Automatic annotation (TrEMBL):
Residues of the 1-deoxy-D-xylulose 5-phosphate reductoisomerase C-terminal domain: 144-231
NADP listed as a keyword: yes
SUPFAM superfamilies registered for this protein in UniProt: 1-deoxy-D-xylulose-5-phosphate reductoisomerase, C-terminal domain, Glyceraldehyde-3-phosphate dehydrogenase-like, C-terminal domain, NAD(P)-binding Rossmann-fold domains
Source organism: Fluviicoccus keumensis
Protein name, as recorded: 1-deoxy-D-xylulose 5-phosphate reductoisomerase
Gene name of this polypeptide: dxr
Pfam families from the UniProt entry: DXP_redisom_C, DXP_reductoisom, DXPR_C
The protein's annotated pathway: Isoprenoid biosynthesis; isopentenyl diphosphate biosynthesis via DXP pathway; isopentenyl diphosphate from 1-deoxy-D-xylulose 5-phosphate: step 1/6
Limits of the DXP reductoisomerase C-terminal domain: 263-378
Length: 389
């Protein structure tokens, strides 16, 4: 029996994870569930899965959650230390890292440093702290399995998981992108899009932040950085390919001319089930792919209409704390767009401004990364009034 902690249990990935776990009660038991604002939803999940611990962000929510639980079997904790404690506890074998944004970094890192099997959905953690994160994976013997559908597909198409690319005869990784809901929009149309339109992805149902990232293509920029770290790939070994149907989740090209792809319906339960059971396979409740119903198209991304891709490449080549700055500025800009404070087309401008403004540190230890994250958030907030139009 594997004990599982789900960080971000009330989110889109958290709920899909619990759906898969619920199908296999003989293999998995829930050790801990964590949430931030959706306390009623967390209470319902605790009643269903009976975790040993439930963790909320704010101490004021402890009593609120306790009052909603019908069982006393679950102990309720709060705060950063509690998140890290349930991610690194000796009775937990596997951690699903599914908190959104920079808030996921420290608990995910705690799981890595405790040598856990870590299922990584929280790409922002790896973008912020890539070198340090991967060093901790190696140093503490953690098993890191990608949940992002593209990276999970690449993992499945690589010769032996995450071995060095050249040794396995790999020439290139083709990272697919749906192109988001505004793939065919003109610049004038992009200027008027609303948060609700941005959050309606044509193929995937996801949380609001990643939905906006998909619409700006920053999601692909973050995934490009994520792929560099996960697969120890050079930036020139990763090509981004727009594939509007999201049926092929990514491809790997070999020196002999072979190209391997992983296909499936766009349902996150497939990569989640893959990573949960790896190297075995388990059922995920996902309908089988019917290829007679899909035409598969491919095109190059348009970096002029979607400049976030270029910004992510720039941050990756600058190195050091630049990716953490990119990520923090993006989180602030996306939140401001969702609140109606800035237009959609102002998001890349905020990020560009902050990347240009802030001094980069090449020594990216945890303190300099967290400092860069804080400074970038402040600079991004200060630039919002300048980017309103
Ligand atoms: P959601 O917004 O749906 O869920 C986020 C989860 O994180 C919720 O459980 C939320 O709690 C919790 N949370 C939010 N802020 C904090 C905080 N400050 N401290 C602690 N917990 C917090 O996001 P998704 O599930 O869509 O995405 C989660 C991660 O997975 C992201 O990094 C995303 O990029 C990645 N991912 C998602 C995919 C998807 O299909 N959704 C695909 C690939 C990657 P609460 O709800 O209680 O407020
Ligand atoms: Mg993805």
């Amino acid at each position: 029996m594997q004990g599982i902690t789900v960080l971000g249990a009330t989110g889109s990935i958290g709920l899909s994870t619990l759906d898969v776990i619920g199908r296999h009660p003989d293999r998995y038991e829930v050790f801990a569930l964590t949430a931030h604002s959706r306390i009623d939803e967390l209470a319902a999940l605790c009643d269903r899965f009976n975790p040993r611990y439930a963790v909320v962000r704010c101490p004021d929510d402890i009593a609120r959650l306790q009052a909603r639980l019908t069982t006393r079997a679950t102990e309720v904790l709060a705060g950063q230390d509690a998140l890290e404690a349930v991610a690194s506890h000796s009775d937990c074998d596997t951690v699903m890292a599914a908190i959104v944004g920079a808030a996921g970094l420290l608990p995910t890192l705690a799981a890595v440093r405790a040598g856990k099997r870590v299922l990584l959905a929280n790409k922002e953690a790896l973008v912020m702290a890539g070198a340090l994160f991967m060093e901790a994976v190696r140093g503490h013997g953690a098993t890191l399995l990608p949940i992002d559908s593209e990276h999970n597909a690449i993992f499945q198409c690589l010769p032996s998981g995450m071995a060095g690319l050249e040794r396995g005869g790999v020439e290139k990784i083709l990272l697919t992108a749906s192109g988001g809901p505004f793939r065919t929009f003109t610049p004038a149309q992009l200027a008027d899009v609303t948060p609700d339109q941005a959050c309606k992805h044509p193929n995937w149902s996801m949380g609001r932040k990643i939905s906006v990232d998909s619409a700006t293509l920053m999601n692909k920029g973050l995934e490009f950085i994520e792929a560099c770290w996960l697969f120890d790939a050079r930036p020139d070994q990763i090509e981004i390919l727009v594939h509007p149907q999201s049926i092929i989740h990514s491809l790997v090209q070999y020196v002999d001319g072979s190209t391997l792809a992983q296909l499936g319906n766009p349902d996150m339960r497939t990569p989640i089930a893959h990573a949960l059971a790896w190297p075995e396979r388990i059922a995920a409740g996902v309908p089988r792919l019917d290829l007679t119903r899909h035409a598969l198209d491919f095109q190059a991304p348009d970096e002029a209409r979607f400049p976030c891709l270029r910004l992510a490449r720039q941050a990756m080549s600058a190195g050091g704390t630049a990716p953490a700055v990119l990520n923090a500025a993006n989180e602030v800009a996306v939140a401001a767009f969702l609140e109606g404070e800035i237009p959609f087309t102002a998001i890349p401008g905020v990020i560009d401004r902050v990347l240009t403004q802030l001094p980069m540190s090449q020594a990216a230890n945890l303190d300099t990364i967290l400092d860069a994250d804080r400074a970038a958030r402040e600079a991004a907030r200060a630039s919002l009034p300048l980017c309103r139009k």
